Amino acid sequence: MAATKRAHVLQFAVLGLLHEGPMHGYELRKRLNSVLGTFRAISYGSLYPCLKEMLAAGLIAEDGPADAGAPALSGRRARIVYKLTPEGKDRFQAWLADAGPEAYEDELFGVHLAFFGRTDRDIRLRILLGRRNRLEERLATLRSNMAKRRERLDEWTLTLQQHGLDSVEREVDWLSHLIDSEIDGNPPSSTSTGTGPASK
Q: Is the pLDDT of residue 1 over 70?
């Protein structure tokens, strides 16, 4: 199940980047790591199997080698350029419009957020509200667990748990700011939205 979710996250991100235009694998990996770097690093070992699956599913197509006009270099394979197919565009739009509970989870929320510029305002607001509700539930659980176990934990464990609590509280505050901006119809400012998603 976890592997399926990771594949979903990566495919969503690949489709979003290819929506901007064709790219080869090296460029895709570089862009993916800049988009998803906060959440997880992408290796070639995960990217190329994902691209192979997406090719087989008809979501993307090969657009020829990136250096087709250049002289061949011995021992080097030409970089293949990938582009979206109509099916890939449809799948990306469907994922953008999905505001269900999976969109509130840690990794998938990050990908949704990266493509909020192409997402309808109502969908953005539903995802932000859902994410905040999910984290408020997590916050209540963390506080309850700390209160119950405080006397049985050493200072280092308490410090670690307090750090986790503080991180979730910061993200809840950040989400509240984004939600207020959406309701007011103002784009969020990168200098005034707090620290962003907490590291997991």
A: no
